[in-house]
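Practice problem: predict the structure.
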Amino acid sequence: MSDAAMLGGIRVIDLTSVVFGPYCTQILANLGADVIKVESPGSGDAFRWSGAAPATPGMAPGFMAVNRGKRSVVLDLKSAEGAAALRQLIGEADVFVVNVRGKALERLGLDYASVKALRPGIIYVHCVGFGQAGPYADLQAYDDVIQAATGTATLLPRVDGDPRPRYLPSLIADKVAGLHAAYAALAALFHRERTGEGQLIEVPMFEAFTSFMMLEHLGGQTFDPPIGPAGYARQIDPLRQPFPTSDGHISIVLYNFDAWDRIFAVLEDPAFITDPRFADLRGRTAHQDDLYRRIAQLTPRFTSADLLARCHAVQLPAQPVRDLGDVITDAHLAAVGHFRRRQHPSEGAYFEQAEPVRFGAGEPDEVRVPPRLGEHTDEVLGELNRR
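Answer:
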């Protein structure tokens, strides 16, 4: 990677797997860092085996999505030779990202004190399930566990009345924690640039996702004593859902006072909003369910395309509800080059998502394709002591 890239010249040793850690390190790779992904012999990162069967075993869609820009090195850390090679790599690195639990790191000689002795200015990013100062410190954590522990699994029951706790169908806790790890690593690199100091960073998934979800859902518990229950009422309102049309569904956001006047004009029922119940903001808030119900009665008179055009014409935020499988063909995403078709040397043509943040300078020209297991072992080990 060119040193002209934003993180050009920064070397990252990535001893993580699945999504939390790899999402963090892929962001660093997207910004130009040389990310060396250390994997175990045999199967490597477990996420290599997730989802549909690819052309090459170990190159599953999930792995492809979160490991571009990296070089894969296979090391047996239980062997003296593998452990020595990793120590050499760390000795030449700027950032070490790891998601092994604390006690195992101590057994491997990869705890912060040991790594700092190898590289005093190292940025050591420890991706953990739970903060190491609390009683859950040694527990395992996966996305489902964190969704349960943070109350996230109780959000859908609040909306649809089905009392069964359910997960949001996304690796949302992993991805949110990965973003926290990425910004933490970048902040620490900036701090080191100014002071010369490396540091240990702990990124606990439980705390990161609690912070993320309870931003709005702390609700009435924000105050002491509480002034209401947990939960942001607007987000868990059963009636604030996509509205049916004659050929699908559409999302319409009605956030401002006058948005209600505009939507009923669009729906050709302007008299409805003139009812005295809706004369002021307090009334519209108190009787919001009546407003949503009436909108849902009116929208099936229109096609999604017609209603979308009408909403946009009067500056109402709206988008049709697309099937998950249709997102890749979205015209806007195509225009901005979000889904990029690339050629992989073993997997053939595939799509990757561009880094969504656009920079005016310092972006790398091209990011490596996702690596095959151990693809760069000889290359990387041959570079040791030659930097």
